[in-house]
Design goal:
The protein is mainly alpha-helical. 84% of the residues lie in helices and 0% in strands.
């Protein structure tokens, strides 16, 4: 058979076979590329899932720590408020508050009353000297054995 002696349908079949082989090769190459791309996407998705789960674990752990710390702080706050109420009800607290009120009243009197300041300063200095003597010398020794009288009756008698 001679190449020129082929009929048109034989040329058609040869062209068709060459075209099909070409299409088959392109189809296999594209399938391999598509398979590689899907594999790469799958790895990327797995990596993102791992990163997301790791981040969620870290955030939940941090949130758990914050919640436990918040509970601890609430307990401490409760304990401190109970302690504060207990301390404010101890004996002597009311007296300290009363002394602060008196101190403020004295400061206002010193500002508002012109003759009160110098008289108050003199009485205060005398009282401080007397009080300091109660810690040293014979006065503390005598006070242990002999009860002292209050000066309140002298003040009432002057009226």
């Amino acid at each position: 058979m001679d190449v020129l002696s082929l009929s048109w349908w034989e040329y058609f079949l040869i062209g068709l076979l060459v075209g099909l082989v070409f299409v088959l090769v392109i189809w296999i190459v594209m399938g391999v590329k598509l398979h590689k791309a899907k594999k790469r996407e799958r790895r990327e998705t797995e990596r993102y899932k791992a990163m997301l789960s790791q981040r969620m674990e870290l955030e939940s752990e941090g949130l758990g720590k914050l919640k436990s710390e918040n509970e601890d702080l609430k307990r401490q706050n409760q304990t401190l408020s109970v302690s504060l109420q207990t301390m404010s009800q101890k004996p002597g607290r009311k007296e300290l508050v009363r002394l602060q009120v008196y101190q403020r009243a004295i400061e206002r009197l010193m500002i508002n009353s012109p003759g009160f300041g110098p008289a108050w300063q003199a009485a205060l200095m005398e009282s401080e000297e007397e009080f300091s003597k109660t810690f040293t010398g014979t006065i503390p020794f005598l006070r242990k054995f002999i009860p002292s009288k209050s000066d309140a009756s002298l003040i009432e008698d002057d009226k």
